[in-house]
Amino acid sequence: MSERKDLELIAELVPAGSRVLDLGCGGGELLALLRDRKGCTGYGVEIDDTKLLACVQRGVNVLQLNLEEGLAMFEDASFDVVLQLDSLQHIRNTETMLRETARVGRIGIVSFPNFAHWPNRLQVALGRMPVTRVLPYEWYDTPNIRVGTYADFEVLARKNGLQVLDAFGIQGGRVVRRRPNLMASVAVFKFTRG
């Protein structure tokens, strides 16, 4: 599976012409894809200098901010879509960031490694922490503060008054809707304030 295919599947959730904020945008690949294919505009937020340079080279508007400090600089509903792809597991105050995502955007889209994917469960049952394409780090050198599951996010969304508009897993570059908590390595949720 390619990371590019994952991005293309997530890009399908973003309406054409949307104003987008991508939190933890990396090198800006998704924002560039949304700009070029769907006429979207917006900004990326990234802290890593190397990734900021990649954004600039792609012609992506990017702000260097630490997401741990929140999104106070953005007004309510100032974006159509706020993306938070593969970054929730790196943030200490996940609930606050999730509420801020819903406040700043009319729609939020998150994705994260699904720790409940069956190969991860098997590795844990064998006494080891999983190391996979989606979770590529050993337990002692991971940038992840936490791990989560598809099922856990459903509970977190309800607890924070969010309405899930769409949810699925991704495995092997394909959408998984049947038993995604078990069968998908990546969880994806599209939501709005309830």
Mean pLDDT: 94
User: Number of helix segments?
Assistant: 7
Give the helix/strand class.
alpha/beta
Stretches with pLDDT under 50, minimum 5 residues: none
Assembly type of the shown chains? single chain
How many strand elements?
A: 8
Whole-number total of structural domains: 1
Shape label: globular
Task: Describe this structure as you would to a colleague.
- It comes from Caldimonas caldifontis.
- By secondary structure, the chain is an alpha/beta fold.
- It has a single domain, classed as Rossmann fold (3-Layer(aba) Sandwich).
- Helix content is 32%, strand content 26%.
- It has an 8-stranded mixed beta sheet with strand order 3-2-1-4-5-8-6-7, sandwiched between helices.
- The protein is globular and about 45 Å long.
Which features does this protein show?
194 residues, alpha/beta, Rossmann fold, 8-stranded mixed beta sheet, 8 strands, 32% helix, globular
